[in-house]
Amino acid sequence: MALDAQQTRGFTHTWPTSLEKSWAKLVKVTKMVKKLGQDDPRRIIHSLKVGFALALVLLLQQFHPSFYGFGANIIWAVITVVLVLEFSVGATLGKGLNRMLATLLAGALGVAIHRIATLSGEKGKVVLSSTFVIVIAATATFMRFFPRLKARYDYGLVIFMLTFCMVSLSDNTEDELWKMAYERLLTIIIGSCIAIMVCICICPVWVGEDLHNQITGSIEKLADFLEGFGDDYFKNSENTEAVDDEPFLHRYKSVLSSKSSEQTMAVLARWEPCHGRFRFRHPWKQYLEIGKLLRLCAYKIEALSVYLLHPKEVWYYHRNII
User: What is the pLDDT of residues 204-239, one digit of tens each?
Assistant: First the structure.
């Protein structure tokens, strides 16, 4: 009886504690989700756009009679929407065009290789198919190491290899293979077009504009530092303590690690059509040059900021030299 009473009391104490922990985790997750949406409300809109695009595929299948002829291949339209529809217009256009072009080329090449391999007999078919797969897959993989190809066409090269292997190694007859290739290509084109239209027509996110704003923000951060440095270095001579809590001392540091994001945005911006003040063949490469100069300036500013972290006695010496 005593043991049962202890177990009952232990369960009574444990249950509220577990409930409180679960509630605390739920509150924490809710705050994280709220902060994520408040930092960039476009993320919420993008999530709704993905759901809307998938709903369009479903409605098109339900109300368009020709979609019933695709059978199981309609799933490729769904997969295409999920993979192609990205946050920005440039990324969506790049992926969509890469996927459509790679599927077309790989499908045609795969059917041709399958035809040639079939004419050589059963044993010859295995040897030729394996040889072509090795050569083409190795070539496409090696092309991914070229920086320019990897930056703009890496996704297309991956889709090319996958589609070619699926078609060329298929056991279907030639007529069945043609039908399968046609249906998959058409469903992928439909999925890509739906993803592109939804991304452009509903609250579009232009990565070129984001790149412009990021470069502008970097210039403002460096300007804020130089202005704040002049005020604290030359005017505040009464304070003999080191300055470490000023916001301008840390705001410029984000410029030091901006190279990767700027390069990615510049590549994606080249896929985007004319929009707003950004016309066709906008000089996106010049933004990279400006970003490079800004990072060089930020490194010099980082060295300059050391003087604000020392006592004012050190300041007087360097100020007299200046």
Answer: 989 988 898 999 988 888 888 777 766 665 555 444
**CB within 8 Å of 240: residues ≥ 6 apart:** 311, 312, 313
107: Cβ–Cβ under 8 A, 6 or more apart, which residues?
163, 167, 181, 184, 185
Nearest to 284 by CA among 266, 296, 262: 266
Instruction: Report how far residue 267's alpha carbon sits from residue 164's, in angstroms, rounded to the nearest whole number.
Output: 27
What is the DSSP annotation of 142-168? Answer: HHTTSHHHHHHHHHHHHHHHHHHHHHH
- Whole-number Cα distances in Å, 125 to 119, 166, 168: 8, 15, 10
The secondary structure of residue 271, as a DSSP letter, is: T
Question: Is there a contact between 291 and 262 (Cβ–Cβ < 8 Å)?
Answer: yes
Per-residue pLDDT tens digits for 32-44: 887 877 777 888 8
Residue 271, number of CB atoms within 10 A of its CB? 20
Q: Name every residue whose Cβ is closer than 8 Å to that of residue 233 and which is 6 or more positions away in sequence.
A: 307, 308, 315, 319
